[in-house]
Specification:
InterPro entries: CUB_dom (IPR000859), DUF7805 (IPR056707), LDL_receptor-like_sf (IPR036055), LDLR_class-A_CS (IPR023415), LDrepeatLR_classA_rpt (IPR002172), Non-NMDA_GluR_Accessory (IPR053207), Sperma_CUB_dom_sf (IPR035914)
Number of helices: 15
Pfam families: DUF7805, Ldl_recept_a
Protein name: CUB domain-containing protein
Shape: rod-shaped
Organism: Drosophila madeirensis
Keywords: Disulfide bond, Membrane, Signal, Transmembrane, Transmembrane helix
Oligomer: single chain
Length: 1175
Amino acid sequence: MASSGWSNSHCQSQNQRQQHQRRHPFPASPLTLLPLLFCLGLCLGMAASAGSGSGTGSGTGAGTSPGKPASLQMAPASASSSATGCSLAEYSCSNGRCVPLSKYCNNLNDCGDGSDEPRFCTRCNRTYYGDIGQTYSLELHRPKQDRVPFVCVLTFTAAGGQHGDVVQVTLDSFTIGRFTSYVHEGCPDGYMQIAESARTPIGGMWCGSSWGPVLFYSETRSLIFTIKLNRLARDQSGYNFDFRIRYKVLSRDSAVTRYGGIKLAELAQWHNRSSFLNQQQQQQQQQQQHQQDVGILEDFTNSSGARSDRYGQDFSLFSAYVNNKTFMASLEKSLAKDEQNYTEPKYYLGDLIPGTYCSRIFSDCDKKSCRLQSPNYPGIYPRNLTCYYAVRQHDVPHGKHALILVKQPKGNLVWISTQETAAANKMAPPASVSDKDKKFEPRLKTWNDCDYIQESVKPRWKSTDYVTVYDGYTTRDPIILKFCGGGQAVPAAVSSGPELLVEFSTSPFGTFTGTSSQVLPLYGFQLEVEVQFVDIQSPTYSKNKKPCEFWIRGAGRGILENPKHSLAPNSTCLYHLQGMGVFKTFDHLSLSRRINSQSGMHQPLSRFKVWISVLKFNLDPEFGQMDETSVGAIGVLQTQEDCSGMLRIWDGTLRDPPVCKDLNCVTESNSYNTVGHYSHNTTNVIARFCRGTIPRTCDRSNINETYARPCTISESYVSSNDAITLELRNTESTVLRPLDFKLKYEFIDLHQDGLPWGGGEHDCNRKFLSSMMDRKDPAIFRSVRNIFLFGRGGTRHLKCIYKFEAQRGERVRIKLRKVTTTNRNCYSRLDEDINRSFCYGDTNVRVEIFERPYHDSILLHRGCVCNSSNQSHLPVEYTSTGRDVEVHFVAQNMTTLDDPDTVNFEGMFEFVKAPTSCKDGRRKFGPSGTIDMTFGDVECRSRPWLIEPSNGNKFLYVRLKAIFLSKYNPTKTLNSTYLQTDTWRCETKSRAVLTTSEGLTIVACPLSPDSNGYEFVEIFSSGWNERPNFALINRSRAISVEFLRPGNGEYTFNWMELVPRPTLSMAEDCQFKCPELGACVNASVWCDGVVHCPSGDDEAFLQCSALMKLPVEILATLCLIFVLSCCAFAAFAIKKIKRKFRGTSVLQTRLKSLSSMDTAVLDEKEKKGSVETKI
């Protein structure tokens, strides 16, 4: 064999190794120190000869290039080299040549002088170094019988710098004894142990045979292999020892799978994949020589068949490009190293707990890229160890709760072997190649599949090759996930708090199974860590791990979903939904027990009810199974019910999770402990949701929760009392079978202030009696909050009446301090003249105040309040003049956006003492009348005058001498009030208010009869302008006249009854009528000395003179005499006039004739004179 010289890589990095060795001196082993000193003198004067080195299974460039200059070969290599000029990874031959340490004692004369093959040499008990970019081969031969038991220790060290930071060892062929068991004397014939130099040995053993290459990666600077063979095969024909390995050293930056931080590199032009596939076999040998940083990617090929590697790249294409020299050379051109040139940051692998082999602590992973890795990842993990990975979140934002999540979406980064060997079962037939491939088909196993293995001696043995995830910081906390195997994504396991513990256990004995000979996977596992924050007050996590309970109390509504964290198998979570009053109930209306017992009235037993609308329920299929309900080419519906995860709705409150013999818990429904407020509270199942069932749901709300049609009672569930319990039960971990649900809940507040007025749960009419109140202080009354009476609950129209009844000598004072009428444009304005509020705009939702002057009279409108934009005048206060007041809460044409939060009011009421006892009657009937508004005491003048017609077929007409100020008509939709600024013309501060039964209100400034102003205000009964309309027959036609802020003076008004004139021409017209009004009036108003008709026809002379009351014959004779007298007088006057003008006419004729003759004579003379002149 030709002797070895300096390698190219050694010469190029000569100065770098020298500087690095000064910083990091590494002591040479005693076995290598003596040969180096022996060859020191020889190497100083020896010239290197050109030659090519060869070695068995050597990787890249073990020998030097031919024709290398001697000056370069004689130059000092580095500080790590001995005085002979050989590097730390090389053996110094006696002739001055340098060969890799792996070629020492390999039965080949690599030095050329035999100095690398001394007598009785051995490869054991030595330390092997390497250079980055070089791959070294090493083989141990089968010992002879007299050398058994055979023990060999091999140490592989990465010295840093050019000599690497991580050691990679590949077992190309491995057979040591036989493997019998994972946990009990599993390696009787021999074993191999692997240890780290800086850590305490753990004693795990490997034996048996490997089916393909197996990789080891060190976590420290050195890997120590201990090989022990206790006995050889008895028949000497079956070899039970074979040990061939390759090793190399890697830099920390190139170990991106373990430490992260992939560099951003410039890729060359894309090449056709087929060209690389054709070159794959030809370049297989060159692959080992040029495999540097990307060499890790070759060894980390996904054995699971997944098409992406750890970083999302297409591995099916990239596996071919790795073997291409041109393509791999293009990847070596990297940019300058800085934070901008990394596609993902460096991993945080935790802090090693002192005194442990692999246990680590992780903290605040929301700011770091935390990764949980098995020891020696991505290589084979050791045997006989238990590692704990404790993750804790210390920094939690205020008002938030931290949840720890571990997952691995890339299945090729997880491979935990739990398979048995074929040798373990002697009765089993030999496995074929297809059986082996099927055996190692990538599949993630969980729970029971990781708890045992099948063996020949004993039926089951506990296997410890699995990962366990605890919902907490100790092993006493619930287990939410347990898995082994690999090749599939590990689903997310989420803790219920800021702490999570991952335990990784391996068996004491093991064999190298878990891969086929075609694909080389990663070993162990790597898990990603994330931190999620949820609201600390939200029901998205269980505050106590055992039991899992949620308490939701209040009077509002919300969305309830499944817990955001994972649930352990056989878990039960109880959601206790109970209504509780937010507002204090009205306690001023305290009824005496005697009255209650006599009247039979009582408050409802439960103030609240719970309304549940399930929007979504989903239980995933078993882990690893296809979802048969998914719609693919052919949609398949599941017909079999699966209740391994279910949601039950209980009508009532449960103290403990129920234990039922059937799914509906019908047989034992009466035995559950209930925590109800009332003895009649029974707890039974009203709904059950399982996979495959079609229960009552309201899933349309998932599309649009705001504008979707509200859920109806037929699509929902309503409790019979104030509590509902949701039972979420799962038999499998929700990590593997997610159990999701989403529902809307709402606490229906049935409480209403006052006493019921009517009947039924949905009746909102209430009354407040002064006679039944112990206290007379101001009290609060509010609008109803029963959602089923509003638009979102399915009701379109709502009208609630609140009636207040005072005792004799009392009045009612109402104060509306809060009114909300959202989703419509409406506001109210206060009329300062009369201190009353009126509504403007869309008055579909409003609060109105009415007063009943007498117990059997009509209600009179006294104010209206609405508020949609906070522009309304609030509060509004009204003090009645009588004893009965009603507040009407009206909501018409409601939509799904209307609920008790958007449509409501709040007010106060008080029964106050009247100033004086007014005994004068102010209720008037009759065909007509005149009333002096200043009649009676001043305190009583503000009481309203109620004018009512004598029967239902007649209308009223009221006329008042006054200045018109404003008008309010609630029947108009928009701009129903007309205002005039004529208040400066008023002679007094008093105001007259005229009101009809439909709420039409006119405000006027009264004028005295002797006032110079000639202005009148008039008003008709309700329905006068809408006739003929038979729907208005039952409408009251009374009119109220109020004299507010009364003062001294003479102010009167009059009224009269009207009947519409006949509309048909053939009908007989009425005798007494007001033509301008188009009405017939009673005969009593005709010529009664008071003007009732606006034109005054009822008091005209022709209508009211005594002469006009004579009989017709006499009136005709008188008229004839009068006419004849007039004619005689006219004839006489004409004759007298003619006689007077007759004398003067003769003289005038004569004078005219004389004047005409004179004029003619003069004319002839002038003509003659003119003729003579011409001649």
